[in-house]
Amino acid sequence: MSYKIEADEIDIHPSVKIGKNVKIKCKSIKLGEFCIIGDNVTIECNKFEAHSWLFMWHGVEVGRGGCNGRNSNVKIGKGVGIFENTVINPSESVEIGDNCGIGADVMIWTHGAWLDVMQGFPHDFGPVKLGNNVWLPARSIVLPNVTIGDNVVIGTNSIINRDLPDGCLAAGTPCKVIREGLYPRPLNDKDLRKLVEHICDDWIDLCISKGITRNIEVWYENRKIFLNQNSLQTIYYLDDRKIEGHINDVSEDLRDYLRRRGIKIYTDRFFKSI
To answer: Of the candidates 147, 63, 151, which has an alpha carbon nearest to the alpha carbon of residue 107?
Structure first.
């Protein structure tokens, strides 16, 4: 075993994958099915709970100052991605909703004080909450006492020091709302067809570059993607987010490519490319 867990309560699903040189120190740790913890990850807090399909990549750090208090709790929803070298400081609670993406080198802080507060210098302690479907891209910083609503997209390098409403596009230092009520905005069938056909064409080009030549055909019809391999068919249902038919390495490669292009279809298998 190349990782170390110190916890009074451990609830880790058998499907979870944990990388090398991982250090976990909590009173309670819970990892749901198909979670992936990359190499050189540190998790230190009171309670850490992640739903299914967490993707926490290399070098992520959960901890730092004040991470052992009773309010030092981290709760993460389903299908969350947290990428390289991000720091989450849970001096106070941090809650991240379903299907959030947190880019590389992001910092989420729940405390901030250094200079003499009796001389009027600033100090701030408080929880951070991200709603469902939040995109917090690379090198952004979230400060204490911030709540970000559902379906929010934030610009790179932003400093978020205030609450953001549902459905907005926001960016800047400090972060400001650029447009409210923008998301979600479901594509009509014409635009969805154009998008999916472009993605499928790109995937076919990628297959050719990988040397995958198995008489592959892929097309879009009625909000479904059809994949044929030598007369063996796989159907990807975009509304129900499910797959039927023939499953092999090629069909799973397409599922993983769809994930990387923003169409996630969860099954009882990890995402995997060829």
So the answer is: 63
